[in-house]
Model the fold of this input.
Amino acid sequence: MKRYLKTFLATPALILALSVPSFAQVQTIETASLFEGSATSIATGRAFGQTFTSADQIFSATYRFASFTTTAAANLNVYFTQWNPNTNTAIGPALLSTTAVVPPSGSFSTFFDATSTPYQGYDLLITLNQALQSDLTYALILVGTSSTSMPSLTQATAAPGDNFQYGTGLVRFSGISTNLATGFTNLTSMALSQINDPGMDWGFSAISISIVPEPSAAAAALVAGFVGLMVIRRRLQRAKLQPVAVA
Done:
């Protein structure tokens, strides 16, 4: 009886292991804790992008802004689009094209950077709920549209290399139209250049994304499933060979 019970309990684990290659893994990732004071103003016509790869869905992204002086409310154009990583340009049409507002710095909250230094910040939640193709690259892009003093977009810099392993940060410091429609047209022809090192990422307090496992991870899951299957088979064979007590 105990052997059959163990077999019964092992079966769900086996099914789960075998299903890993077919189902992506939902992850929530943040880079804001790596902020060390490096930030860039989201002035009018400036575009800031973050690319995403190896994902089959992105649910939301929460950018972290900082203010070191008094700033007014900042208006932004928000685009989510397929991306050409070779030319650093958008591929249309836009999957999402909308606007967002970062409030005045007077309503910001106190956060602490990677060196335990306090600063005033604000988390801008952008809900996406976009289904993706894991073999393609996508980009989430913000374009500043306000002419008043504006807050800065934080940058994850505390650790060298790639802080967000499923994409990289992009920027263009001028020239993007603030019109929602023509601004996206600019992004299909005006390249956003990578800044700093290839591993540079903007500060996010949360990125909710469904990641497709790497081939090596999928292979490991198959091996685990095969081993589990062999264990179950051996238990069943032993159960059949178990002597029956005569009453």
